[in-house]
Amino acid sequence: MNAVPLHLPTLRGEHVRLREWRQSDSAIVRDASHDPLIPLLTTVPDTAGEPEALAFIERQNHRVASGAGYVFAIANEDDRAVGHIGLFFANGAGARASIGYWIGPSERRRGYAADALATLTSWSLKLHDLDRLELYVEPWNVGSWRAAEKAGYEREGLLRAWERIDGRPRDMYMYARLTDRARTDEASP
Ligand SMILES: CC(C)(COP(=O)(O)OP(=O)(O)OC[C@H]1O[C@@H](n2cnc3c(N)ncnc32)[C@H](O)[C@@H]1OP(=O)(O)O)[C@@H](O)C(=O)NCCC(=O)NCCS
Protein backbone atom coordinates (compact mmCIF):
# COMPACT_ATOMS: atom_id res chain seq x y z
CA MET A 1 0.00 0.00 0.00
CA ASN A 2 1.24 3.53 -0.75
CA ALA A 3 1.70 5.89 2.17
CA VAL A 4 -0.18 8.70 0.42
CA PRO A 5 -3.74 8.90 -0.92
CA LEU A 6 -4.00 8.40 -4.66
CA HIS A 7 -5.53 11.06 -6.84
CA LEU A 8 -8.30 9.48 -8.91
CA PRO A 9 -8.57 10.91 -12.42
CA THR A 10 -11.66 10.64 -14.62
CA LEU A 11 -10.83 8.59 -17.71
CA ARG A 12 -12.75 8.75 -20.98
CA GLY A 13 -13.17 5.66 -23.12
CA GLU A 14 -14.98 5.27 -26.41
CA HIS A 15 -18.40 4.94 -24.71
CA VAL A 16 -17.66 4.73 -20.98
CA ARG A 17 -16.23 7.07 -18.40
CA LEU A 18 -14.23 5.77 -15.45
CA ARG A 19 -14.94 7.97 -12.45
CA GLU A 20 -15.19 7.88 -8.65
CA TRP A 21 -17.88 5.79 -6.97
CA ARG A 22 -20.84 7.82 -5.67
CA GLN A 23 -23.56 7.01 -3.15
CA SER A 24 -26.10 7.38 -5.98
CA ASP A 25 -24.52 4.35 -7.74
CA SER A 26 -25.98 1.81 -5.29
CA ALA A 27 -28.41 0.27 -7.85
CA ILE A 28 -25.58 -1.37 -9.81
CA VAL A 29 -24.00 -2.79 -6.64
CA ARG A 30 -27.37 -4.30 -5.71
CA ASP A 31 -27.64 -5.70 -9.25
CA ALA A 32 -24.16 -7.26 -8.92
CA SER A 33 -25.19 -8.89 -5.63
CA HIS A 34 -27.49 -11.17 -7.67
CA ASP A 35 -24.59 -12.48 -9.75
CA PRO A 36 -23.40 -15.97 -8.75
CA LEU A 37 -19.71 -15.05 -9.21
CA ILE A 38 -19.17 -11.39 -8.30
CA PRO A 39 -19.76 -11.71 -4.51
CA LEU A 40 -17.36 -14.68 -4.47
CA LEU A 41 -14.58 -12.78 -6.26
CA THR A 42 -15.01 -9.33 -4.74
CA THR A 43 -16.28 -7.49 -1.68
CA VAL A 44 -19.67 -6.91 -3.33
CA PRO A 45 -22.20 -8.08 -0.71
CA ASP A 46 -24.22 -11.21 -1.48
CA THR A 47 -27.31 -9.52 -0.07
CA ALA A 48 -28.85 -6.82 -2.26
CA GLY A 49 -29.72 -4.36 0.54
CA GLU A 50 -29.20 -0.61 0.24
CA PRO A 51 -27.05 -0.26 3.41
CA GLU A 52 -24.70 -3.03 2.25
CA ALA A 53 -24.42 -1.44 -1.21
CA LEU A 54 -23.61 1.95 0.32
CA ALA A 55 -20.98 0.33 2.55
CA PHE A 56 -19.39 -1.23 -0.57
CA ILE A 57 -19.19 2.23 -2.19
CA GLU A 58 -17.66 3.69 0.95
CA ARG A 59 -15.00 0.95 0.90
CA GLN A 60 -14.06 1.74 -2.71
CA ASN A 61 -13.37 5.37 -1.91
CA HIS A 62 -11.39 4.30 1.13
CA ARG A 63 -9.17 2.09 -1.08
CA VAL A 64 -8.20 5.16 -3.10
CA ALA A 65 -7.72 7.28 0.03
CA SER A 66 -5.49 4.64 1.61
CA GLY A 67 -3.37 4.24 -1.53
CA ALA A 68 -4.37 0.58 -2.07
CA GLY A 69 -5.24 1.11 -5.71
CA TYR A 70 -7.18 3.10 -8.28
CA VAL A 71 -10.83 2.04 -8.09
CA PHE A 72 -13.39 3.35 -10.56
CA ALA A 73 -17.08 3.08 -11.27
CA ILE A 74 -17.66 2.38 -14.97
CA ALA A 75 -20.28 4.89 -16.13
CA ASN A 76 -22.22 4.76 -19.38
CA GLU A 77 -22.98 7.66 -21.72
CA ASP A 78 -25.76 8.83 -19.32
CA ASP A 79 -23.26 8.80 -16.42
CA ARG A 80 -25.09 5.83 -14.88
CA ALA A 81 -22.77 3.32 -13.19
CA VAL A 82 -22.80 -0.09 -14.95
CA GLY A 83 -19.82 -1.76 -13.30
CA HIS A 84 -16.52 -1.57 -11.54
CA ILE A 85 -12.84 -1.64 -12.48
CA GLY A 86 -9.73 -1.31 -10.34
CA LEU A 87 -5.94 -1.32 -10.60
CA PHE A 88 -3.98 -2.77 -7.69
CA PHE A 89 -0.23 -2.71 -7.18
CA ALA A 90 1.55 -5.94 -6.27
CA ASN A 91 3.37 -5.65 -2.93
CA GLY A 92 2.17 -2.14 -2.41
CA ALA A 93 3.67 -0.21 -5.29
CA GLY A 94 6.00 -0.39 -8.22
CA ALA A 95 6.57 -2.54 -11.20
CA ARG A 96 3.62 -4.92 -11.33
CA ALA A 97 -0.13 -4.34 -11.03
CA SER A 98 -3.31 -6.32 -11.63
CA ILE A 99 -6.70 -5.23 -12.89
CA GLY A 100 -10.08 -6.61 -11.81
CA TYR A 101 -13.52 -5.72 -13.20
CA TRP A 102 -17.18 -6.60 -13.29
CA ILE A 103 -20.28 -5.43 -15.13
CA GLY A 104 -23.74 -5.70 -13.52
CA PRO A 105 -25.75 -8.66 -14.89
CA SER A 106 -28.37 -6.37 -16.45
CA GLU A 107 -25.72 -4.35 -18.37
CA ARG A 108 -23.69 -7.05 -20.11
CA ARG A 109 -22.86 -7.70 -23.77
CA ARG A 110 -22.80 -4.00 -24.64
CA GLY A 111 -19.03 -3.63 -24.88
CA TYR A 112 -18.65 -1.94 -21.47
CA ALA A 113 -16.00 -4.32 -20.07
CA ALA A 114 -13.85 -4.20 -23.20
CA ASP A 115 -14.06 -0.39 -23.39
CA ALA A 116 -13.33 0.08 -19.66
CA LEU A 117 -10.40 -2.33 -19.71
CA ALA A 118 -8.85 -0.73 -22.81
CA THR A 119 -9.27 2.72 -21.21
CA LEU A 120 -7.73 1.83 -17.84
CA THR A 121 -4.95 -0.14 -19.55
CA SER A 122 -3.79 2.71 -21.78
CA TRP A 123 -3.78 5.12 -18.83
CA SER A 124 -1.97 2.62 -16.55
CA LEU A 125 0.75 1.89 -19.10
CA LYS A 126 1.89 5.50 -18.75
CA LEU A 127 2.21 5.33 -14.95
CA HIS A 128 5.68 5.99 -13.67
CA ASP A 129 7.66 2.89 -12.74
CA LEU A 130 5.19 0.29 -13.97
CA ASP A 131 6.43 -2.64 -16.08
CA ARG A 132 3.58 -5.09 -16.25
CA LEU A 133 -0.21 -5.31 -16.02
CA GLU A 134 -1.80 -8.66 -15.16
CA LEU A 135 -5.25 -10.23 -15.36
CA TYR A 136 -6.32 -13.60 -13.95
CA VAL A 137 -9.21 -15.16 -15.85
CA GLU A 138 -10.91 -18.53 -15.48
CA PRO A 139 -10.82 -20.48 -18.77
CA TRP A 140 -14.64 -20.72 -19.01
CA ASN A 141 -14.98 -16.93 -18.69
CA VAL A 142 -14.99 -16.20 -22.41
CA GLY A 143 -16.42 -12.68 -22.03
CA SER A 144 -13.55 -11.73 -19.73
CA TRP A 145 -10.70 -13.12 -21.82
CA ARG A 146 -12.16 -11.74 -25.03
CA ALA A 147 -12.21 -8.30 -23.38
CA ALA A 148 -8.58 -8.89 -22.31
CA GLU A 149 -7.45 -9.81 -25.81
CA LYS A 150 -9.26 -6.83 -27.32
CA ALA A 151 -7.28 -4.61 -24.90
CA GLY A 152 -3.99 -6.08 -26.12
CA TYR A 153 -3.27 -8.58 -23.34
CA GLU A 154 -1.48 -11.80 -24.20
CA ARG A 155 -2.27 -15.15 -22.66
CA GLU A 156 0.94 -16.38 -21.04
CA GLY A 157 -0.28 -19.70 -19.71
CA LEU A 158 -2.57 -21.60 -17.42
CA LEU A 159 -2.03 -21.36 -13.65
CA ARG A 160 -3.41 -24.64 -12.36
CA ALA A 161 -5.35 -24.59 -9.06
CA TRP A 162 -4.26 -20.96 -8.69
CA GLU A 163 -7.02 -19.72 -6.42
CA ARG A 164 -9.76 -21.19 -4.26
CA ILE A 165 -13.16 -19.77 -5.12
CA ASP A 166 -16.18 -20.97 -3.20
CA GLY A 167 -13.96 -23.59 -1.56
CA ARG A 168 -12.75 -25.14 -4.84
CA PRO A 169 -9.32 -24.71 -6.48
CA ARG A 170 -9.72 -22.95 -9.83
CA ASP A 171 -7.41 -22.75 -12.83
CA MET A 172 -6.68 -19.27 -14.19
CA TYR A 173 -5.34 -18.01 -17.45
CA MET A 174 -2.59 -15.49 -16.84
CA TYR A 175 -2.92 -12.54 -19.18
CA ALA A 176 -0.35 -9.74 -19.26
CA ARG A 177 0.56 -6.53 -21.05
CA LEU A 178 3.96 -4.91 -20.72
CA THR A 179 4.85 -1.25 -20.92
CA ASP A 180 6.97 -0.22 -23.92
CA ARG A 181 9.91 0.41 -21.60
CA ALA A 182 9.64 -3.07 -20.08
CA ARG A 183 9.51 -4.60 -23.57
CA THR A 184 12.64 -2.72 -24.63
CA ASP A 185 14.53 -3.62 -21.46
CA GLU A 186 13.40 -7.25 -21.77
CA ALA A 187 15.00 -7.45 -25.22
CA SER A 188 18.38 -6.06 -24.07
CA PRO A 189 21.03 -8.28 -22.45
C1 LIG B 1 -16.86 -10.90 -17.92
C2 LIG B 1 -17.65 -9.59 -17.95
C3 LIG B 1 -16.84 -8.51 -17.23
C4 LIG B 1 -17.88 -9.18 -19.42
O1 LIG B 1 -18.53 -7.90 -19.42
P1 LIG B 1 -19.32 -7.35 -20.73
O2 LIG B 1 -19.48 -5.88 -20.58
O3 LIG B 1 -20.54 -8.17 -20.92
O4 LIG B 1 -18.27 -7.68 -21.88
P2 LIG B 1 -18.24 -6.97 -23.33
O5 LIG B 1 -19.63 -6.64 -23.75
O6 LIG B 1 -17.24 -5.86 -23.30
O7 LIG B 1 -17.72 -8.17 -24.22
C5 LIG B 1 -16.34 -8.42 -24.47
C6 LIG B 1 -16.24 -9.54 -25.49
O8 LIG B 1 -16.65 -10.78 -24.88
C7 LIG B 1 -17.77 -11.32 -25.53
N1 LIG B 1 -18.63 -11.86 -24.47
C8 LIG B 1 -19.15 -11.18 -23.42
N2 LIG B 1 -19.82 -12.03 -22.62
C9 LIG B 1 -19.71 -13.24 -23.19
C10 LIG B 1 -20.20 -14.53 -22.84
N3 LIG B 1 -20.94 -14.71 -21.73
N4 LIG B 1 -19.91 -15.58 -23.66
C11 LIG B 1 -19.17 -15.39 -24.76
N5 LIG B 1 -18.65 -14.19 -25.15
C12 LIG B 1 -18.95 -13.15 -24.37
C13 LIG B 1 -18.40 -10.16 -26.30
O9 LIG B 1 -19.13 -10.61 -27.41
C14 LIG B 1 -17.15 -9.37 -26.68
O10 LIG B 1 -16.46 -10.03 -27.73
P3 LIG B 1 -16.41 -9.46 -29.21
O11 LIG B 1 -16.32 -7.96 -29.11
O12 LIG B 1 -15.20 -10.10 -29.76
O13 LIG B 1 -17.69 -9.89 -29.80
C15 LIG B 1 -19.03 -9.77 -17.25
O14 LIG B 1 -19.69 -10.88 -17.80
C16 LIG B 1 -18.92 -9.97 -15.74
O15 LIG B 1 -18.87 -8.98 -15.00
N6 LIG B 1 -18.89 -11.23 -15.28
C17 LIG B 1 -18.82 -11.53 -13.82
C18 LIG B 1 -17.53 -11.02 -13.17
C19 LIG B 1 -16.30 -11.44 -13.95
O16 LIG B 1 -16.23 -12.51 -14.52
N7 LIG B 1 -15.30 -10.53 -13.95
C20 LIG B 1 -14.03 -10.81 -14.61
C21 LIG B 1 -13.19 -11.68 -13.75
S1 LIG B 1 -11.67 -12.07 -14.58
Protein model, in words:
It is a single chain. This protein is an alpha+beta fold and 189 residues long. It has one domain (11-187): Aminopeptidase. The chain has helices at residues 26-32, 38-41, 50-65, 112-124, 142-150, 180-187, and strands spanning 11-12, 17-19, 69-75, 81-89, 96-103, 132-137, 154-165, 168-178. α1 (26-32) packs across α3. The two termini are 32 Å apart. Bound molecules: coenzyme A. Residues 35, 37-38, 101-103, 108-114, 137, 141-144, 146-147 line the site of coenzyme A (COA). This is Protein N-acetyltransferase, RimJ/RimL family.
Tags for this entry?
189 residues, alpha+beta, Aminopeptidase, 8-stranded mixed sheet, 6 helices, 31% strand, binds coenzyme A
What's this entry about, in short?
The chain has 189 residues and is α+β, with helices and mostly antiparallel strands. It has helices at 26-32, 38-41, 50-65, 112-124, 142-150, 180-187; strands at residues 11-12, 17-19, 69-75, 81-89, 96-103, 132-137, 154-165, 168-178. An 8-stranded mixed beta sheet has the order 1-2-3-4-5-6-8-7, sandwiched between helices.
